[in-house]
Amino acid sequence: MSEQNFDIVVLGGGSGGYAAALRASELGFTVGLIEKDKVGGTCLHRGCIPTKALLHAAEVADVSRDSAKYGINATFEGVDVAGVTSYREGIVAKKYKGLVGLVKARGITTIEGAGRLISPTTVQVGEDTIVGKHVILATGSYSRSLPGLEIGGRVITSEQALELDFVPKKVVVLGGGVIGVEFASVWKSFGADVTIVEALPHLVPNEDESISKSLERAFRRRGIDFRLGVRFAGVTQNEDGVIVSLENGDTVDAELLLVAVGRGPSTANLGYEEVGITMDRGFVITNERLATNVPGVYAVGDIVPGLQLAHRGFQQGIFVAEEIAGLNPVVIADINIPKVTYCDPEVASVGLSEAKAVEQYGAESITTYDYSLAGNGKSEIIGTSGSVKVVRVNDGPVVGVHMIGARVGELIGEAQLIVNWEAYPEDIAPLIHAHPTQNESLGEAFLYLAGRPLHTL
Length: 457
Ligand SMILES: Cc1cc2nc3c(=O)[nH]c(=O)nc-3n(C[C@H](O)[C@H](O)[C@H](O)COP(=O)(O)OP(=O)(O)OC[C@H]3O[C@@H](n4cnc5c(N)ncnc54)[C@H](O)[C@@H]3O)c2cc1C
Fold this sequence. Notes:
Blueprint: E1 3-11, H1 15-26, E2 31-35, H2 41-46, H3 48-65, H4 81-105, E3 109-112, E4 115-119, E5 122-125, E6 128-137, E7 141-143, E8 155-156, H5 158-163, E9 170-174, H6 178-189, E10 193-198, H7 209-222, E11 225-228, E12 232-237, E13 242-246, E14 251-254, E15 256-259, E16 263-265, E17 279-280, E18 283-284, E19 297-299, H8 310-324, E20 339-341, E21 346-351, H9 354-361, E22 366-372, H10 377-381, E23 387-393, E24 398-405, H11 412-420, H12 425-428, H13 439-449
Parallel strand pairs: 1-2, 1-6, 2-3, 6-19, 8-15, 9-10, 9-15, 10-11
Antiparallel strand pairs: 4-5, 5-6, 7-16, 12-13, 13-14, 17-18, 20-21, 21-24, 22-23, 23-24
Helix pairs in contact: 1-8, 3-4, 3-6
Flavin-adenine dinucleotide binds at residues 11-17, 34-37, 41-43, 46-48, 51-52, 114-115, 138-141, 158, 179, 266, 270, 301-302, 308-311, 313, 342.
């Protein structure tokens, strides 16, 4: 039994927790980082990185299948799942090694074990007590299911989907959000028949409606089946497969059912309520500066209501470390956090959708422009269609950018600067976009909105 004392104790070493620890140590604080599994958390081990490796392998499969289109003779002979797994695990292992080395090099003390908050300044890990002048809660999230829908056997979540050692012949994906459409995209590229079931009227329902509709068209062209606006009723499974029934009476049979209905906060039985922290349905409630109601205790990442994204976790971790240091960091509204969905085609957005902009400013006070990637040379070269839609306030800034097409995720960097810097199209129009790049599509859209279109009418 021992007691260790730090300036800052971080509970959970995922994107939010380790970012807080890194920034805090950089600012001269002593830091104890408690992790029960592996530093890097969901994003590195079970989320962003492994799924994007899968999506890249899926792209390679599609490119090899379509190579004749580019005059290259290649044949797609199938998916070597063991090979994909070793590629994916290799990436994760390399990044993990780098991260562990970085955490150590920054002088952060990593404490292995499951922690429980026992007072506003103390976390219990086994027999040991870890005491901090400040405590940052960063325990992350888990794959949720629906009431009565038990995970097991052929009913899986993203964790088991990543570990599959075969390509299923037929899959039902329950949930048309980010995780659902990404797995649907991978499996289709790998040769599976895929059906997505989504209760809301559109795929990626958090996106601008026009983008959701474009994705639906693209998925239809790819032969990905989807049922929208219909609720899941139940599932039965046997040795051969699953039968998924929907509330409209339809049934869909498949080899597997992937449940991708969102992620819940990992906060149960961690002592948060007992210490008096205000919670709501398992989420930790903070003010906009990420302080809980208990002085000295902060929360970051997926346990804080809002977008569950790794880069939001990083930013919040950095924010809290700087807040504790008295640096008065800038608050970034959730709406201005960039979002990318890495299916094929990719979807990327930041800021207000057209509907939200109308709600906020009134229809007469905004202008939107939808630039088709058909006019963009680089998009033509790589064989993608899609669009870049921008929303501006009249005589005011750009408040939203919404994109769909292969590789548009890489354009979000510029888009998020424009929206967060509240740039006017007139500010951007004189600046230069390299040719031929897909970034030019953003340039063209802003030229248009600034009243001086170049390659459009
Ligand atoms: C399949 C999938 C794909 C995703 N893709 C993307 C993407 O492309 N881009 C993106 O931005 N986001 C993506 N995400 C979301 C992203 O992974 C999360 O938003 C991010 O990991 C949240 O970070 P966090 O620090 O809040 O939590 P986590 O990363 O979940 O980390 C929490 C950590 O706390 C530890 N922990 C929990 N309880 C305790 C305890 N009691 N004691 C000690 N340690 C504890 C856990 O072991 C874990 O390591 C994806 C998620 C999934 C599931």
